[in-house]
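Supplementary Methods, section 5.1.

A reviewer requested that the exact input to the structure prediction be made available. We therefore reproduce it here, unchanged from the version used in the analyses.
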Amino acid sequence: MGTKKINTMTNSAKKLSLACAIVSLATAMMLWTPAQAVTAVATVNVNIISTMTISTLNGLIFGDISSGPTAGTIVMTPGGARSATGGANINTSVAGSPASFDVQGDASATYSISLPVSVVLSDTASHTMTVDNFTSSPTPSGVLDGNGQQTLFVGATLNVGSNQAFGAYSGLMSVTVDYN
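The structure derived from this sequence is encoded cell-by-cell as follows.
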C-alpha cells in the first residue's frame, strides 16, 4: 500500500508541478513586453511647375544682300546690328532683323537656351548657303520676369559664297529652352 501511495503522490506532485509551470509561464508572458516598433512620420511634397513654352515671333532675316567675286559673311547680332565682310555686301532696300521668340513659364525662373550649330539655306534651284555662329540675347541662359515671360533674340552669321547665285534662300532653325 505504501507503494501505491507514493505513486499517487508522484502523480499529484507531477500535476502540481505542471500547474505551477503553466502559472509561471502565464505570469511571465503577462510581464514580458516585446521590443516595441517605433514609427516616424515625414512629409511628402511636390511642386508642379508650369510647362515652359516658346513661340516664334519673327524669323531671322538677313535682308537684301549681294555677293562679289570673293566669299564673305553677313552678321546679324541679337540686337539687330548687321555687318558684312569679304565679298558680301549689305543692300539697304530691305533691312534685316534677328529672330525673336516669346518664352513663357514660371515667374522668375531661369532657363537654358540651346541654339543650332548650323542651318543650310537653299533656293528653288538647290543653291545653298550656311548659317552658323548663332548667338542669343539673353545668353547663355535667361530669367523670366515676374509674369513668367521673356523675349529671346537670336542672331547668326550667313556665309555667302563668291558670286552666290541670285534668288530667295530659306531654311529652318530650331531653338530650345528648358528650366535650369
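Helices lie at 2-31. These observations are discussed further in the main text.
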